[in-house]
Amino acid sequence: MILHIDMDAFFASIEQAINPRLKDKPLIVGSRGNKMHTVVCAASYAAKALGIYSGMSSQEAFSICPKLEFVPADQAKYIWTSEQIFQLLKSYDLPLNYASIDEFQLELAGHPDPLNLAKKIKEQVYANFNITASVGIAKNWLLAKLASKLNKPDGITLIDDSNFEQILRQTSLDKLCGMGGKIGANFIASGLKTCWDLYLDLPGFFNDNPGKFDENPGKSNELPKSISHSYTLPTVQINSQVIQAWIRLLSEMVATRLRQQNLISATVHLWLNDPQIGNFGAQKTHQSAINDGYEICQRALKIMTKLALKNPRIRAIGVTCSSLSRGIYSPLLSEDIRREELIKALDRINNRFGEGSIYPAITVLTR
DNA sequence: TCTGGGGTCCTAGGACCC
DNA sequence: TCTGGGGTCCTAGGACCC
């Protein structure tokens, strides 16, 4: 059995727990500070009741409810809370998987009373963090995750042989993880509407363990696969100096995070968005792995040159580092040793006075 | 004057090696 | 006058998730 824990309106609930004035109010957490130029990252249940949901543009949300409370996302706060919850769950001494910032899974091999365990976990989470979670229990992660959504917020749902058919009959296919957009549309086009329809068509889909978790329970200790930063410009940008400045800034931001986690990266991926063309980009893997923003930027700019854009009209820019390994960038040349000292000094300054206190001069073009 | 940002996994095709 | 088979790594792009 898998017990899937899904936090309720996680970011919004944390903000409400910290600031009681926001309790029970319609509240959205925006993905960036400009409250009219962002999208909804999380909506409190009072906001959801008005029809506001994550992914909606903030403009639309405010048009539904002009008195909506707005808080810009504070990722560090949510990551910290998520880690605390992870530590709490670890104390149960069961195989534990960190599925996402607000989702966790426990594997219960022959646990005598999963429902009671779920209750206990919910109580502990509430007692410690003043936020609620919904729990789903089933024979594999796909069903457990589905179950956790069925009684939100603050619910517990168990799917077993006694209610399997009934629940699958009542649940439309798009509720199932992986059935977003196009894939779901394909199934619907072939005449399948509910999860039960899919079960009759492909019983193995629910019976086998199509399981990430089931196959590698140690996931939480693995390295991340990639680290990225991206930015959507307020308007289309045609000045290549400004575009380069953004590539530099994003490279520095990625590099800082690599160093914080003692990671080095061999692959740099640059992607761009041109509203007319859509997303495009390229990646390049090198022999040497690095975590220096300047070097990452150089590699990204080389990709930019190779793309040979005639008249760039750029709306969004992203820099991703992948092929990650644990390690510290070890310079060999004396010039590199100088740079390493410089980077360490910059990190110390930014740690002490706040992120962005000191940055390469070219990045002033991003302001 | 529209609508973010950070991730994962999968796949097909190409380059290259033996 | 012609040309196998197997494998790995890399790349571009698509799709999905929170």
Write the layout of secondary structure elements.
Elements: E1 2-7, H1 10-18, E2 27-30, E3 40-43, H2 45-48, H3 58-64, E4 69-72, H4 75-90, E5 96-100, E6 103-107, H5 114-129, E7 133-138, H6 141-150, E8 156-158, H7 164-170, H8 181-189, H9 195-201, H10 204-207, H11 212-215, E9 226-237, H12 240-260, E10 263-274, E11 278-290, H13 293-307, E12 314-326, H14 334-353
Parallel strand pairs: 2-4, 7-8
Antiparallel strand pairs: 1-6, 1-7, 2-3, 5-6, 9-12, 10-11, 10-12
Helix pairs in contact: 4-5, 7-9, 12-13
The structure holds a DNA duplex (18 and 18 nucleotides).
Key traits:
367 residues, alpha+beta, Alpha-Beta Plaits, Dna Ligase, domain 1, 2 domains, five-stranded mixed sheet, four-stranded antiparallel sheet, 14 helices, 12 strands, globular, DNA-binding
Uncertain segments of ≥5 residues (pLDDT<50)? 210-220
The name of the CATH architecture of the largest domain is 2-Layer Sandwich
How many separate helices? Answer: 14
Main beta sheet strand tally, sense and closure: 5 strands, mixed
Structure description:
The protein has a five-stranded mixed β-sheet with strand order 5-6-1-7-8. Strands 9-12-10-11 form a four-stranded antiparallel β-sheet, with helices on one face. A three-stranded mixed β-sheet has the order 3-2-4. The protein has helices spanning 10-18, 45-48, 58-64, 75-90, 114-129, 141-150, 164-170, 181-189, 195-201, 204-207, 212-215, 240-260, 293-307, 334-353; strands spanning 2-7, 27-30, 40-43, 69-72, 96-100, 103-107, 133-138, 156-158, 226-237, 263-274, 278-290, 314-326. The model is unreliable at 210-220 (pLDDT under 50). It folds into two domains: 1-222, Alpha-Beta Plaits; 226-366, DNA polymerase, Y-family, little finger domain (Dna Ligase, domain 1), CATH 3.30.1490. It has 367 residues and is of the alpha+beta class. The longest helix is centred in the last third of the chain and has 21 residues, at 240-260. β5 and β6 form a beta hairpin. It is built from 14 helices and twelve strands.
